[in-house]
């Protein structure tokens, strides 16, 4: 996830301090993605260095010290617009443990592949049932996160079925 773009999006609503950005981020995402103030301040420093934000004054913080307020520059608005209009690439897992486990079972313990698939399928279905129980009716970051996980698990279930079919096909060809 691009913290840079998330912070730019929040700053495009209104100028904010680092602490204000963290609160707005936590509110907007239902705190499903933990973000600490250090990440915010480091990202703000990079955004300012890159000319994507600038200072918009200061406020006196709770500790009595001046705290900078940030706002996007024209370049920052352009960067944000580019982000909004670009697709998000799917996260690629180079070392998917399930793929490795099934691959190794196929090579070293072929008799355990089908039980392994059944165990995984059972766990996947249990996770699906639990997530469906948690599913809310309003569109929040939490609900969207659950929906995404449900679709990922449904895809995993279909993939497990496909692997089983491939195993049966391979076994029939070997005979």
TrEMBL record:
Residues of the Transcription regulator PadR N-terminal domain: 7-81
Family matches, as Pfam families: PadR
Stored InterPro entries: Tscrpt_reg_PadR_N, WH-like_DNA-bd_sf, WH_DNA-bd_sf
SUPFAM superfamilies: Winged helix' DNA-binding domain (SSF46785)
PANTHER family, alphabetized: NEGATIVE TRANSCRIPTION REGULATOR PADR (PTHR43252:SF6), TRANSCRIPTIONAL REGULATOR YQJI (PTHR43252)
Listed name of the protein: Transcriptional regulator, PadR family
């Amino acid at each position: 996830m691009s913290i840079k773009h998330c912070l730019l999006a929040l700053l495009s609503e209104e100028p904010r301090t680092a602490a204000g950005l963290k609160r707005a981020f936590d509110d907007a995402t239902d705190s499903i993605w933990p973000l600490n103030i250090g990440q915010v301040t480091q990202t703000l420093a990079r955004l300012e260095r890159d000319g994507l934000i600038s200072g918009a004054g200061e406020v006196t913080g709770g500790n009595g010290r001046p705290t900078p307020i940030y706002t996007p520059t024209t370049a920052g608005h352009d960067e944000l617009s580019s982000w909004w209009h670009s697709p998000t690439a799917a996260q690629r897992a180079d070392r998917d443990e399930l793929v490795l486990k099934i691959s190794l079972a196929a090579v070293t313990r072929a008799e355990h592949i089908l039980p392994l698939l059944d165990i995984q399928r059972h766990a996947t279905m249990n996770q699906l049932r639990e997530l469906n129980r948690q599913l809310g009716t309003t569109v929040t970051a939490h609900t969207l996160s659950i929906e995404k996980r449900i679709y990922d698990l449904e895809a995993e279930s279909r993939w497990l079925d496909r692997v089983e079919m491939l195993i049966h096909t391979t076994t029939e060809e070997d005979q």
